[in-house]
Every structure is written in C-alpha cells, then in structure tokens.
Amino acid sequence: MNRTIWLAVAVVVFVAGLGASFAEWAAGNQPWGQLLGDNFLFARSLPFTIGLGIALGYWRASGWRLGVERRASDNAIRRFAPGTVTLHALAGLALVTLMATGGWQYLKGLLAAETPIDMGTVYRIHYIAASLLIFTTAAFVTDWRLRGERSLTVPKGQGIRTLRGLAHELGKPLGSTLGYLLGLDLRRAAPPTEQFTYYERTISFPIWVLALSLIIVTGVIKAMRYVYPIPGEALYWISAIHVGSGVLLGLKLLDHLRYALAPSRWPLMVSMATGWIPERYVQRFHPGWYARLSESAAAVPTVPATPSQPIPRASRGTP
Amino acid sequence: MKYLWAVLGLLYAALNLYVGYLLVMAGTGPKLAQKGIVLTAPPILGGIALAILALPLLWNCVRLATARPAADSV
Fold first, then answer.
1. What angle do CA A38, A44, A48 make, to 5 degrees?
2. Residues whose CB falls within 8 Å of the CB of residue B37, separated by 6 or more in sequence, listed in order
3. What is the tens place of the pLDDT at every residue in A45-85?
C-alpha cells in the first residue's frame, strides 16, 4: 500500500511541477521564442521526470514477486515481467524518436540543407522523447538497484568463465581469435547459457549502458545551458560527445536488431513483446537457466494449473 | 508479425546505409575538407561504421522473412 501512495505522490508532484512550468510559459512573462521556451520547460521538468521514474522503479521493486511463472496452456516460461515489456517498448520508442529528430538536426547542419519541417517542432519532439527516455531509464535503474537484479551483467568472479562462454557463442573465427588473444581454454565445454546469452551480458548490455549514460548526461547538461551558464569550450565538447554517442546508439540499435531478428533467436524477440518464451527453447538454448528453473520447480509440490502459475524459487525472478 | 519486423529491419538498415552515405559525402565534401581532420574524420568513420553494421541486419531480415520453420524448431 505504501508503495502505491509514494507513486501517487510522485505523480501529483510531477503534474504540479509541470503545471507550474507550463503556467509560467503560457503567461508570456519572458520574451522567449518557441525554441528557448521549450528548452526551459524541458530543463525545469527534468527533476520531476527523474523523480517520477525513481518512484515507479521503487513501486516495481517493492511489489516484486519472487518466483517464475509458467503459462498453463503450453508451459511457456515468463522471461520478462509485463512492466519490463512496457518500459522496454517505451524506451525503444523514445530512442527511435530521439535518433530521428537528433539525426535530423545534425544532418541539417552538416549538409547545410533546408528542411521542410519546422525545426522548432523537431526540437519539441526531441525534448518529449528525451523526457520519456530519462523517465524509463530512472525507473529501470532504481528497480534493478533495489532488487539487486544482475542477470544482464557479468557475475563477480566469473569474468573468465563468461568470456569463455562468449568465445564459444561467437564461434569461428571471431570466438577463436578472442580465445587466442585472451588465452582462454576453448577445449573446455562452453558454460551453460543463463537467462541472457554471454553476448548480451558482455557486449550488448555494457554498450547500451555506456551509450545511454553518455547521451543522457550530455543531453541534460546541454538542456541546462540556459539555466546555468556553461563555458563555451566545455559546451563544444559536450555537444560533440552528445552527437558521438547518438551515432553510437544508432550503431548499437543496428547490432541489437541484427541480433534479435536472427531467425534462430526469433523466440527471444517474441518474449520481449509478450514476456513468454517456449520451454523447449529455454531447455535447448538456455540450459543454465533451465536447470535452475527445474531445480526450483522440483523443490515445490505440484499445484493445480491456473492461467498463470507462479512457482516459488529462491533465486531472482524475471527482470 | 515476423514479416512486419523483417520489413522494419530492412527499412532501418536501408536508412542507415543512406545516412552513412550522406555522412561520408559530407565528410569528404568541400565544406568540411578545410576544417581539419578532427571535424572531417567523425562523419566519415561514423558513416562507414553505419554502412558496415547495416549489412548483417539486412542479411538477417532477409533470412527471417525467407526461413522456413524447421521440424525440430522450438
């Protein structure tokens, strides 16, 4: 109950903060044009947006049910919670919008081209999408930190084992080159894949974290430049890093889609939309995770099937 | 849904190929050519990287659209 009250308070504070900013913007007390007005509105809404994200993350984490759900109809296993699916979709939408509007701004300047679209509108959409991305990031980070969720990271003390798993996943010639360079013993069998593949844990997720951190931090500093004066030299480099991390995000999205749209990994793609993954797929391609699920399932008595049956286990639940 | 994602992936890959081309053209064009390697190199390198990473996505989208589900597929 407390968690819902906190979330409701955060929603009220967010609406009040945004409302106050809008009221001042609409009053016309400042001689700002659309661009500057939108920039101020975005900059002043940031603390409330981040606060709402933190409150949502707290709400998710504190109401988390430990255990794994199985769908009664086909015994599919839940890989992602419904909230994770929704937040991932929102973050994806925000990211695509940000890259489209940010890329538009960058290319317009680089090519010195005229644009048929009003740039004020492009910036406005950019700020709205940035707010959405910051909100979802704050919610995810808070939720994962509070729950100690680490299934997408390399476990402590298992760096070599994880790299060996990655080398096996990459196959020849990339994997064998990696194994040779790092001195990995690839004659040993590949360690069983857990809930996420070794590629997702060692390459994909760290690059997402790096690129998103860079773009959010530099974007927030750029947005604050009219509220707090920032030296021109510093702003130049911050803008350069912002554009560079935007290109990095574009590259990462290409790689992410390449990975997710491979025919053999289509069930993983479906699981990101529905939350469910077929049991046979987990058994075949994620044996480490399947073994943990089976152990915990064997430890509890069988219960009558219901549309969505939680099976308690000691380890963590779905991300 | 599989075909929709294959088409979306193809469109995104094609768009990135085009943006990569624009970036390389801008980097090698007369406007940036006089501004030194610090300003010229990023669009050229970024454009090449976008084009290179778009190719595997194109390939996987074609495979996704044309792959038949195997008998033992899960």
1. 125
2. none
3. 999 999 999 999 999 998 877 677 888 888 889 999 999 99
8 Å CB contact between A40 and A226 = yes
Alpha carbon distance A135, A139 (integer Å): 6
**Rounded CA gap, B25 and B23, in Å?**
5
Q: Which of A107, A243, A269 has the CB atom closest to B22's CB atom? A: A107
Contact between residue A282 and residue B40 where contact means Cβ atoms under 8 Å apart? no
pLDDT digits (tens, 9 = 90+) for A243-273: 999 999 999 999 999 999 999 899 999 999 9
Residue A181's Cβ-count burial label (10 Å; 0-12, 13-18, 19+) is: exposed
Smallest Cβ–Cβ distance between A250 and the set B16, B56, B61 belongs to: B16
Chain A residue closest to B74 (CA)?
A281
Specify the higher pLDDT residue, A133 or A108.
Answer: A133
Check if the beta carbon of residue A298 is closer than 8 Å to that of residue A59: no
pTM of the model: 0.87
Name residue, tokens 């064998």.
A176
The C-alpha atoms of residue A150 and residue A219 are separated, in whole angstroms, by 27
CB A310 within 8 A of CB A67: yes
The reply to whether residue B49 touches residue A112, judged by beta carbons under 8 angstroms, is: no
With 0-12 CB in 10 A as exposed, 13-18 as middle and 19+ as buried, what is A42? buried
**Minimum CA–CA partner of A260 in chain B:** B60
**How many CB atoms are located within 10 Å of the residue A6 CB?**
16
Structure token pair of residue A139:
């919610």
CA atoms of A100 and B36, how far apart (whole Å): 28
* ipTM of predicted assembly, 2 dp: 0.89
Q: Which residues of B touch A274 (CB under 8 A)?
A: none
**Rounded Cα distance, B22 and B24, in Å:** 6
